[in-house]
Amino acid sequence: MKAKIAVVTGGNSGEYEISLKSGKNIADQLDRNKYDVYLIHLRGSQWTYKTDNDEIIPIDKNDFSLTLNGQHINFDCVFVAIHGDPGENGKLEGYLDMLNIPYTSCSTMVSALTFNKNYCNRVVNSYGITTAPSVHLFKYDHIDPQAVIDKVGLPCFVKPCNSGSSVGMSKVNTKEELLPALETAFKEDDQLLVETFIKGREITCGIMKYQNEIQVIGITEIISKKEYFDFEAKYDPSLAYEITPAQIPVDIQELCEETSKKVYKALDCKGIVRIDYIFNDSGLYFIEVNTIPGQTQESIVPKQLKTKNLQFTTLCSYFIDEAIANKK
Which of 40, 113, 158, 305 is most buried (most C-beta within 10 Å)? Predict the structure, then answer.
């Protein structure tokens, strides 16, 4: 009997449209000889499945099930393809944990930790990995712009702590730009990270645990045609170059691979994740972990997989089967 797999897409963040594309690509790639695949759409409280006849069927949230043609369907595994809330911040994983339904992404705790840029940086830094100097701010703090600048310098980045794809992020070049940037970021989140600008080259490393071994998939260099790699540049191919494999010095490649394996193990990640860095003559600086990286045909990780001659369908099957086998 085929396992019933829910590919969950959509979500509530600015990455909604990208999630739809990732979810569809994953659903299309899954092996239909092994799995019955259901593409489930989440948006706020509306959790639905669309039939081939375009009929919209609600998901029963009591047990995350679907009733289709009189048949009650319980899923054997969930493939999480939601970037941002609620898939990448641990909320969906916590719900699935309560129902004892296995899933392919990182655990509830790891997802929540890595989604918050400040807390993730603090933990990663405790393992001896270099991060940029930063200040953690809350929405109702009394904020002294000069005190912030004294700590992180100029230019600096203002980032919502719990947001992906650079949504709400600004580069601040002058003291006068700081408060407007904070206001923009606070529209996205109640916590902010103000971080020293590190001048250098941006690289991102795809990494996974496959066949009981933590393996680097590939390293990509990102060269933005804009001032930095913002939301627009991330999803408009004309605004950035993505070079895979990255043409970087061997010592930086080895350090990036070693650091990525260390982060993956230390945080107890699962499945495929992507870790971002900046490097310059001073070394390698950790930026963030993406526990559910983009998985469209145009996304970085699928392109990295192609350079390694790794089949996306094979990997998806592996992670699904592993999740099911490890069900508690």
Answer: 158
- Looking at the structure, tell me whether residues 75 and 118 fall in a common domain: no
Strands (E), the chain: 3-10, 35-43, 46-50, 56-58, 65-68, 71-74, 77-80, 134-138, 156-160, 170-172, 191-196, 201-210, 213-224, 240-243, 272-280, 283-290
Query: In this structure, is residue 166 part of a structural domain?
Result: yes
- Closest by alpha carbon to 76, among 6, 160, 156? 6
Q: How many domains does the chain have?
A: 3
DSSP track, 110-158: HHHHHHSHHHHHHHHHHTT--B--EEEEETTS---HHHHHHHH-SSEEE
pTM for the model:
0.92
Which pLDDT score, from 0 to 100, does residue 216 have?
Answer: 97
Both 98 and 30 in a single domain? yes
Domain of residue 256: give its range: 112-130+199-291
Question: At residue 291, does pLDDT exceed 50?
Answer: yes
CA atoms of 134 and 136, how far apart (whole Å): 7
Residue 232 has pLDDT above 60, yes or no: no
